[in-house]
Design brief:
Length: 53
Amino acid sequence: MSPGTTDLLLLILVFLGLQVWWIIPLIKNNIKINESDKELRKKFEYLEKLYKK
């Protein structure tokens, strides 16, 4: 192995770790928002049907 290989691998691993550290909470939050959005759409459609009669 050349002299800088371990440093480069460590740098790549740290970079990828930091990317995962902030992306995963964003994905979890997006999933929660999508689930609540589905519930709101169902309620909205129900109210539309109720008031169209």
